[in-house]
Design goal:
This protein is mainly alpha-helical and 208 residues long. The protein contains 8 helices and no strands. The protein has helices spanning 6-36, 41-69, 73-92, 97-111, 113-123, 130-160, 167-173, 175-191. Helix 3 (73-92) packs antiparallel against helix 8 (175-191). The longest helix has 31 residues, at 6-36. The mean pLDDT is 93.
């Protein structure tokens, strides 16, 4: 029953798609890419810290907002759009420290959309399958990171052809997370159904 639910898979893929970029940049490419753009090593490392700060702020704040307005989809769409805007700025417009700082904080806020994914996936599961449903969400998040990161590395290796990796090489490779986040926007806008912050499996009694 759980595995056959399209909504569970849509939500899990969304969660992985918005989270992927912050994990990839933190573990692999943010520091060398920023250094190629003229930022020193301390600032480059600090940008990663700002991304996780944005993530830490975004998780409880967006959860509170979602609970307050009794909607999941608008918040999910907002986080996906924020993540897309941030990676576009990081990739193509690292103009100065202020712009890039804003972009990394926004990246963290965008990635925090995966916390809404856990909430809405719980509302799509029957109680007896709740833990398994949350496990599917976590599985898709980690799977996308595990699969996507090596793919980007392979693309970078191919583009550089054994030479030093250039800014242009990174910009082409970063189109992969851009496409992934765009897919998250499509899912949150057109495929994921609103739950109105309540279980879709509960019986609603209408009093006359």
């Amino acid at each position: 029953s759980l595995m056959s639910s399209k909504q569970v898979w849509f939500i899990a893929i969304f969660s992985g798609a918005v989270y992927f970029t912050i994990e990839y940049l933190s573990e692999n490419a943010a520091k060398p890419f920023l250094m190629l753009n003229g930022f020193d090593t301390k600032i480059a490392s600090y940008m990663i810290t700002l991304a996780w700060l944005g993530y830490g702020i975004g998780c409880p704040l967006l959860g509170f907002i979602s609970d307050s307005i009794k909607r999941r989809k608008p918040v999910m769409l907002f986080t996906a759009c924020t993540a897309l805007l941030s990676i576009l700025i990081i990739t193509f417009m690292p103009i100065n420290i202020y712009v890039i700082s804003f972009a990394f904080i926004a990246l963290g806020i965008g990635a925090s959309g995966q916390s809404i994914g856990f909430a809405i996936i719980a509302e799509q599961c029957q109680k007896e399958y709740l833990a398994a449903g949350l496990g599917v969400n976590n599985f898709l998040i980690m799977s996308l990171v595990a699969i996507g990161s090596p793919i980007i590395s392979i693309v970078l290796a191919h583009l550089s052809a054994g030479k030093d990796i250039t800014i242009a090489n990174y910009q082409v490779a970063f189109c992969i997370p851009i496409v992934i986040i765009t897919f998250a926007i499509i899912l949150s806008a057109f495929f994921i159904k609103e739950t109105f912050c309540r279980s879709t499996k509960e019986v609603i009694t209408v009093k006359v």
